Amino acid sequence: MSDSPSAPNARTQSAQNTAKVVVHFRPTGNAPILKQNFFKITSSYRFQTVIDFLRKQLNVQPATGEVLLLYVNSAFVPAPDEIVGNLHQCFHDAKGDLVINYATTAAWG
Amino acid sequence: MADSDIVRRVWSGVLPLEIVIDLPRTVHSQQSGGRVDDTSEQNYSTATYLFAPRVSYLPLLIPTLRTRMKQLVDPHARDLAENLDPSTVWFEADGGVPLKWHYPIGLLHDIHTLHITPSTSRLSPPHLPWRLRMKLERYPVEKIVSLRSPLLNPVPATPPPNDGTPLKFEVFEEKMKKVAAVVQDAHVNLLKESDFLRNGSTKKTMTLSRAELGQLWTGLETHDFDLFWSIFTRLITPPSLSSHSLSSVSLATTSAPSSSALGSTTTTDQPAPSPNELSSPTDAPLSPTGAQDPSPRSLPLSPRWVPMRAYREGKPVAQDLVPPYSTAGEVSEETTLLKALSILLPDSSFITTTTTTTRSTSTPLRVLIHGSDVPLEAPVVWLGMNMTYADGFVHVVVRGA
Predict the structure, then answer these.
(1) Domain with B124 in it: what CATH number?
(2) What DSSP element (H or E) covers A97?
(3) Are B16 and B128 in contact (CB under 8 A)?
(4) Adjacency order of strands within the sheet including B97-98
(5) How confident is the model over B129-146, as pLDDT tens digits?
(6) Rounded distance, CA B147 to CA B152, Å?
(7) Looking at the predicted structure, is the pLDDT value of residue B14 above 70?
(8) B14-23 and B130-135 as β-strands: parallel, antiparallel, unpaired?
(9) Could you tell me how many helices (H) and strands (E) chain B has, helices first?
(10) What confidence score (pLDDT) does residue B45 get?
(11) What is the number of domains present in chain B?
(12) Are residues B81 and B100 in the same domain?
């Protein structure tokens, strides 16, 4: 995620928090597909960074009311202020990737 | 397993609040009367007092606060109350810190009064009522989640037009319904997250009917124990042995041989469930020992992981996989709160100092759940049954770490 905005406190975080984790994006339903599905993201970032990044990648414009939903493991929508590293630590798959399913209409509950 | 008296007490916990309502002047500059213009540079405020359920959420207080505003003598305040848009309301702690509305009120209090140490405060425990400011404008979208469909359409809310005229007529009750739906949405997703940690899938939450979900929410909104817990208890009751790894269960029987109810003698030495199991929510197959056991209910129940989060001042929230039982070589025992904190806060110094019983006396360590000091020996399985918040998580606030 080289073009993602930098977190304000990224520099002051410890080395552990500047570690990166792999995020695996999977489209659901009619959601557009990405050329590249795997991205590295700094673990201390908030989930909002992931939302903003994917929105940019898919060119989903909030102004026009386009919806983009991000689910972890097809199961739940994390709050935008949850820490990516926490989500990865608790919900990564067997390969060590945090799977994020995205949809342009409500998919699970 | 669950101690109904404790569960009820935790649920009943209320927090006395002093809420200072900031009444902006600018919106109603057309208000007649010279005094308004004289003080137009400065907002003015009025305080009100109420008891808030610790397990509830700040936006759910808005209808009550609006009623109080309407009772004020000042016609300007009544006017503001009449036209109040609840999605623009936010709350601030002392020091100008915006409060996250998706955190339970009690947790917010415990987090934001951490810095008040007995030496700097006249009163200990922290001064009550807890003083908050209610703000009606300049919603800090960069710092707290918007109350306008944050999860369904997570974009920064565009600020409302500030020309003092509502775009379209919509009664407060309708607007409040939408705000409550946003809070409920956030709550349900936290429930699903904790469900996934406990059970390896969100099946329990997803199979709730619309009516049951509605009852759960009404129970929270109205602070009705029976309404809420009759549904909630199903979500947090651990799966039986057959649905997941035997290891923790069999190890528990060896660690508690005195309990005659634990008739099984399974001592299989399987590895503890790994994080990878979470990716395949399908139930683990029964091991031969489990299949031979004719009475699964004779075995203790245990969640896969105990949903826990730890909070410290000035640090990001910590969340990790907390196993219900810990193994050290041959010996296995219930995971204690101390052990859980060492998993959640590996960089924390108090863990080592506490375990070597040479804890520094200069910074008193406090570990709070629901505002209560909890002994570090407390087993997390018990905490997960008895001291969870309404979102299914055990939120632990740590001071002195």
Answers:
(1) 3.10.20.620
(2) strand A97-103
(3) yes
(4) B44-53, B14-23, B130-135, B90-93, B97-98
(5) 999 999 999 999 889 998
(6) 11
(7) yes
(8) parallel
(9) 14, 12
(10) 83
(11) 3
(12) yes
Among B379, B318, B313, B317, smallest CA distance to B346 is for: B318
Helix or strand run (H / E) with residue B34: helix B34-38
pLDDT band at B366 (very low <50, low <70, confident <90, very high): confident
pLDDT band (50, 70, 90) for residue B15: very high
HSE-up of B300 (CA within 13 Å, CB side)?
26
Q: B321 — contact with chain A (CB < 8 Å)?
A: yes
Contact A109 B196 (CB under 8 A): no
- d(CA B348, CA B100) in angstroms, rounded, equals 25
The amino acid at B26 = T
Q: Is residue B154 scored above 70 in pLDDT? A: no
Place of tokens 């924390």: B348
Where along chain A do its domains lie?
16-103
More confident residue, B337 or B356: B337
**What torsion, rounded to 10 degrees, do the Cα atoms B11, B397, A45, B154 define?**
20
Q: What does the DSSP 8-state code read for residue B336?
A: B
CATH number of the A16-103 domain: 3.10.20.90
Q: What is the DSSP letter of B340?
A: H
8 A C-beta contact, residue B248 and residue B322? no
User: How many other C-beta atoms lie within 10 A of the C-beta of residue B293?
Assistant: 20
3-42 in chain A: CB under 8 A from chain B: 14, 16-17
**Residue B57 within a domain:** yes
Report how far residue B382's alpha carbon sits from residue A90's, in angstroms, rounded to the nearest whole number. 21
CA distance B241 to B243: 5
Tell me how far CA of residue B363 lies from CA of B117, B178, B205, B398, in angstroms. 9, 45, 41, 12
Rg (CA), chain A: 13
Specify the DSSP class assigned to residue B298. Answer: G
Q: How many angstroms away from the CA of B140 is the closest CA of chain A?
A: 14
B57/B106 same-domain check: yes
Any domain includes B372: no
Cβ separation A89–B317 shorter than 8 A: no
CB-based contact A100:A71 (threshold 8 Å) = yes
Residue B139: closest CA among B180, B181, B100: B100
CB contact under 8 A, B347 and A82: no
Residues contacting B203, CB < 8 A, separation 6+: B195, B281
Lowest pLDDT segment from B13-22, B29-38, B246-255, B298-307: B246-255
Question: Cα separation of B155 and B174, whole Å?
Answer: 22
Give the pair of three-digit tokens for residue B25. Answer: 């002047």
- Residues in A closer than 8 angstroms to B320, CB to CB, are 86, 89-90
The domain in which residue B213 lies consists of 184-236
What is the mean pLDDT for each group of 10 consecutive residues in chain A (109 residues)? 41 58 94 94 95 91 79 94 96 96 77
Q: Look at residue B151 in the predicted model and tell me its pLDDT.
A: 55
